[in-house]
Write a structure and sequence with these properties.
187 residues; mainly alpha; 5 helices
Length: 187
């Protein structure tokens, strides 16, 4: 019961709050993208009529068909010593690979996007930007699975920290690329 309530509040609450704040800002600027009050009421009505009963139904089904947790393998109280690994299996090496490969796959499209963003040329094919984004998402997902598999084969019990850092490495590489291009453009 509590988890169903928290799912409804912690997902839909911030979503509705952000929508309300952005719409209020759009109305204050007189933007044409601002939603009228009637549309917001209709969206809230659809939310109440559709999502809340489905959330309750999913909670009831999950509660009725739950099973007792059984660990998939035997666990030990004391973690095993992790043997020393090669440079590419350590956190900095995996962060470097996890960030470099996606950025290098989309660097040409990023160059066109940054050039159009700073007014050097006009971005003519915005659909290609979407395709590049899809390629980036697929590549980051595949890399995170592969690099996490490398950690799990070493029986590293702290794999989740490296997983989080591998995912954020693409963001760090992209930001460094943006700052590099901005510094080069300003000088």
């Amino acid at each position: 019961e509590r988890s169903v309530f928290l799912t409804g509040v912690l997902y839909l609450g911030p979503l509705f709050l952000i929508l309300s704040i952005l719409n209020t800002i759009a109305i204050s600027y007189g933007a044409t993208a601002a939603l009228p009050f009637g549309t917001i009421v209709e969206l809230f009505f659809v939310l109440v009529v559709a999502n809340i009963p489905l959330l309750a139904f999913g909670g009831v089904i999950g509660h009725r068909f739950r099973s007792k947790f059984q660990a998939p393998s035997a666990t030990k109280r004391i973690p095993r010593e992790i043997p020393p690994s090669a440079w590419y299996r350590k956190t900095p090496g995996q962060m470097f690979l996890g960030g470099l490969l996606p950025v290098s796959a989309i660097v040409l499209e990023l160059h066109s996007f940054y050039a159009s963003l700073w007014g050097y040329k006009i971005l003519t094919l915005s659909g290609i930007l979407f395709v590049t984004f899809i390629i980036l998402v697929i590549l980051v997902a595949m890399l995170s699975v592969a690099l996490t598999y490398i950690q799990l084969t070493m029986e590293d019990h702290e794999w989740w920290w490296r997983y989080a850092l591998q995912i954020s490495a693409h963001n760090m590489h992209s930001r460094l690329s943006i700052w590099h291009r901005l510094a080069r453009a300003l000088s």
